[in-house]
């Protein structure tokens, strides 16, 4: 993904035959973040493939929206009525994003450098954003805009408002809350994330996103709960916990090696 280009797209695309939904959803996410139109054919194929898991098809639909080319509007409009609710809602959002881009410039200054499924709302008042966020009669695209506006504000009050969104009816919406909590890495979100991960009747897509967010926050309570769910019955949750803990171990080893190198350098040069 970091290198980009047709060769990177080709290699990433080969992974969609894998058995891990977690891996395939990450591949689709990466293709969307590249924003390279050459990825449109494979993403379109994945979205249309009923043999792919819903979370993989959802991510392919979101990636098509991230690339933002009008030529996929017809396909996205078709799958806006998909029987899988998460796929349908994703395609509805992708249509809205592309239509928004046709009338507005892509916004710059995203502090997280991600291509998001909706631009942040212009509103800065947390209470007003919270009201939009939690009002399920408001169009989903506008509620997503409230999510990203609150994320960009980044305060504890904004985090607590977002946390209330984990009780909303749409699993897709709840999973997006988990995703932005992972970006924000704010300790105030930990109790809500743990609660969501522990809900065995929660959508696996939501639980997996909350597990990844806990891994990115990486405080002791996060690590403990991730270890508890290493044998979860849902493969995508189990693998998310494994990846989160493996990343923590890798990062800690890198920090240790860096610190150890500094100590040795100081001994040799002082």
What oligomeric state is this?
single chain
Number of beta strands: 0
Give the count of helical stretches.
14
Distance between the termini: 42 Å
Overall pLDDT:
94
Indicate the proportion of strand residues.
under 5%
CATH-defined superfamily of the domain at 1-106:
Leucine-rich Repeat Variant
Largest sheet: none
GO molecular function, one term: deoxyhypusine monooxygenase activity
Protein name: deoxyhypusine monooxygenase
Catalytic activity: [eIF5A protein]-deoxyhypusine + AH2 + O2 = [eIF5A protein]-hypusine + A + H2O
Organism: Callorhinchus milii
What would your notes on this structure say?
The termini are far apart. The protein has 270 residues and is an all-alpha fold. Helices cover 69% and strands 0% of the residues. The chain has helices at 5-13, 21-34, 40-48, 54-67, 73-79, 85-103, 126-134, 140-153, 156-164, 171-184, 190-198, 204-217, 220-228, 235-269. The chain has a domain at 1-106: Leucine-rich Repeat Variant (Alpha Horseshoe). The longest helix has 35 residues, at 235-269. Pfam families: HEAT_2 (PF13646). Keywords: Hypusine biosynthesis, Iron, Metal-binding, Monooxygenase, Oxidoreductase, Repeat. Its EC number is 1.14.99.29.
